[in-house]
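WARN retry 2 of 3 for item q-0093 after timeout on previous attempt; input resubmitted unchanged.
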Amino acid sequence: MAVLGILALSGCAGLVNGEGGPVPGAAVPAVAVSPQAADPHDLDAAERALAVHHYVQARALAARVAARNPGDARARLIEAEVILATGDPDAAARAFAALTARPAVAIRALQGQGLAHLKAGNRQAALSSLRRALARDDGLWRAWNGLGVLYDARRAWTAAYESYARALAIRPDAGEVHNNMGVSFLLQGRYREAQDAFERALSYDPELRLARANLRLALAWQGRYDTALLGVTEREKARALNDTGFVALMRGEHATAEALFRRAIAADPRYNPVAVGNLVYLEDLRRLGAVSPPSAIAPEAGAN
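OK item q-0093 returned
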């Protein structure tokens, strides 16, 4: 059983999910705006706000334009991107779908629709939308990143790598793409290559918590437990200890796993259910004389 890493899916161009902005799933408050206050450059400013995760500002600027001109497709696209980054992916998919027939934004809307479907777990719909978008514009790095995630889910490693490589050819500094390539290597048991990919992700985006958590897993899979835990904050400590312990358990290093689980429990009582569950599982393995655990409570995984 492979330990999964955490995937990064951009909600909008340049976005790493949640970093520097609202937590995904949290509503962005509506902002009352005056149509007369709209400025011709509001949408450019809204795009810049999206790129640095200032979602409230982006929504307010787009809403100001939409209040003056309800049919403005670009304003509606920005609003859909904000929903994707911070809200319900199904709602985002519907918002993008309404724009796919608008020539000015149709290709970006298809990309957004595909990413929203992917975030919602609708893989076939995501694949269809992303492929349609790329057929019309193969310079959409976010669409290539999404395809890579889809191919990894199918264990189509070569296709996944090629998709990430296409994304990076367009945006070499996209930390989330380097992270996802690292997750792909992690799933294949190519732990040193995964480490390198996560380190590249962090070199471009030092605040990308997803890549930092995944780097710990890559180091732990190489047996480098102490290195994996270097620099862990108090807030991260319980989860980091549990996840590292899980890797030790999967590697058959039961004494190390037990010590790490017990440290996780001591670090944060709120984390007890997870670490205690893994500790109980380890004790069951020992009692039964089992060697290779078929299941346990793995580090959380998911697409963001």
